[in-house]
Structures are given as structure tokens and as C-alpha cells.
Design goal:
Length: 243
């Protein structure tokens, strides 16, 4: 079975999962942490190279203050609880997004977790917090514009590789498989540049219900897709163009 090298996931539906059980929204986010753990474990077992999870978008700051505070607390607790085991499994953990907006307490936990796991050669796990695809592209444009202004780069020499190298996921292969739970069928400002050729997979399951069997189903669906990257189907045709 052909496996994706890189999986990107929008973990949606925690609130609806909680509401369906008469629970507060934060109970859905706590249950979501369990689903994250199961998903990471399976990706490690399957030797997937990279997994990128959308945990909090630039737009999620607009949620009620109490929910935002609970989510941030959940991230801190999850780091305190999980980093040792991630490290033992050779996972390299990184956060992507506008981390200057995060509480200093969370920023320092993130820096410590990234430092501890930086040398690991197993699963590259990216957690997107305060992340937006447009923010990522704008920041890359700012970096490249600064290089042009300094004269180290000429505008006419700019290529796709320069842009890719200035983005948060620099150095990683683009996601092969995008999964969104919770029933919506949109990208919602996730990895806009990197998802250009990614296979999209949507499921109505809410994130806390997305278990190992559901992940395997997504992987099987991916294995059946034919990826052409703009080329035609089948074996590469012999050229009919004459010199
Ligand atoms: C979307 O569901 C989910 C979130 C905004 C938070 C996702 C965070 C987690 C699952 C915790 C992950 C933690 C780590 C450390 C990776 P929603 O609240 O939008 O649900 P709804 O659409 O049903 O309201």
C-alpha cells in the first residue's frame, strides 16, 4: 500500500462532539487530545515521515476568552505530559504559527520541547497554533522582500523554491494527504501554499471519534488515488514532439 510521506489534519468537531453529550466545549477539546495521541502513535508505527496538526488558527482568537484560555492551558498540560514519551519515540516536535501572540508560559514550554526533540530522526510532528496560511505567505514575502532590499537576492531570481524555503514548513515534503474531520469541506486558511497538489479527504466524524480505524480508512482511500501532478495517466508516453 502506498503511504503518504506527510499528512496534514484539520481536527474539527470537538465542540459538536461535546454538545452531543451535553458536555461543555472544553470537554471536547480534552477528548481531542486522546485522538491526537492515538493518531501520533499510529503514524510512528507506520513510519510516516511528517504529521502536521491544526490545533488553533489565527481566526480562533475570536472565540470567547474562556475557551481560548482553556485551549492554551490544554496545550501547556499536553506538553508537560507528552514530551518525554514523544522524545522516547524519536519524534521531532515543532510548533508553527505566530508564537509571539501566545502566553510566555506556553512559549517557553514550546521552546523547551523543540530544543529537547530537535535532534530526533523519527516522525516530524508540527502543531499549528495561532497559524494561518495567509499569515505564513505574507511573512515569507516580507522575508524575501527584505533580502531583495539588502541586495542579497534579485527580484527576477525569485523562484518557487525561495518561497517554499521561507515558509513555516521549509525543509519538509508538501503534505500528500490532507484530512479534515467534522463534516466541513474546506481548507480554512491552513497550509495554503503547501496543499497545492495534496489529496483531500473529508470525513463526517468529529475529531474525538477519529480513531486508528478511521485513520487507516483515510490511508486506504489515499492509496487508491492516482496522483498525476498535471501529467497524463498511465506510463510516461514516448515523446511525439519532433526536434
Ligand atoms: C476544532 O473543533 C478544534 C479546535 C479549535 C481545537 C483543536 C485542539 C485539539 C484537538 C487539542 C490538540 C492539542 C494538541 C497539543 C495538539 P471546534 O471547537 O471548532 O468544534 P466545532 O466545530 O464542533 O465547534
Amino acid at each position: 500500500m502506498s503511504l503518504p510521506r506527510h499528512i496534514a489534519i484539520i481536527m474539527d468537531g470537538n465542540g459538536r462532539w461535546a454538545a452531543a453529550r451535553g458536555l461543555p466545549r472544553h470537554a471536547g477539546h480534552s477528548a481531542g487530545i486522546e485522538a491526537v495521541r492515538a493518531c501520533v502513535e499510529r503514524c510512528v508505527e507506520r513510519r510516516i515521515e511528517a504529521l502536521t496538526l491544526f490545533a488553533f488558527s489565527s481566526e480562533n482568537w475570536r472565540r470567547p476568552g474562556e475557551e481560548v484560555a482553556r485551549l492554551m492551558g490544554l496545550f501547556v498540560d499536553a506538553l508537560d505530559r507528552e514530551v518525554a514519551e514523544l522524545h522516547a519515540n524519536r519524534v521531532r516536535l515543532r510548533f508553527i504559527g505566530e508564537r509571539g501572540r501566545l502566553a510566555v508560559r506556553l512559549q517557553s514550554r514550546i521552546a523547551a520541547a523543540e530544543g529537547k526533540t530537535a535532534g530526533n530522526d523519527g516522525l516530524a510532528l508540527q502543531i499549528a497554533v495561532s497559524y494561518g496560511g495567509r499569515w505564513d505567505i505574507v511573512r515569507a514575502a516580507q522575508r524575501l522582500a527584505a533580502q531583495c532590499a539588502e541586495g542579497v537576492l534579485q527580484p527576477r531570481e525569485l523562484t518557487e523554491s525561495h518561497v517554499a524555503a521561507a515558509l513555516e514548513l521549509a525543509g519538509l515534503p508538501d503534505p500528500d494527504l490532507f484530512i479534515r474531520t467534522g463534516g466541513e469541506r474546506r481548507i480554512s486558511n491552513f497550509l495554503l501554499w503547501n496543499l497545492a497538489y495534496t489529496e483531500l479527504y473529508f470525513t463526517d466524524l468529529n475529531w474525538p471519534d477519529f480513531d486508528v480505524a478511521a485513520l487507516e480508512e483515510a490511508l486506504e482511500c489515499y492509496a487508491r488515488r492516482e496522483r498525476r501532478f498535471g501529467r497524463v495517466a498511465g506510463p510516461a508516453p514516448r515523446s511525439t514532439v519532433r526536434a
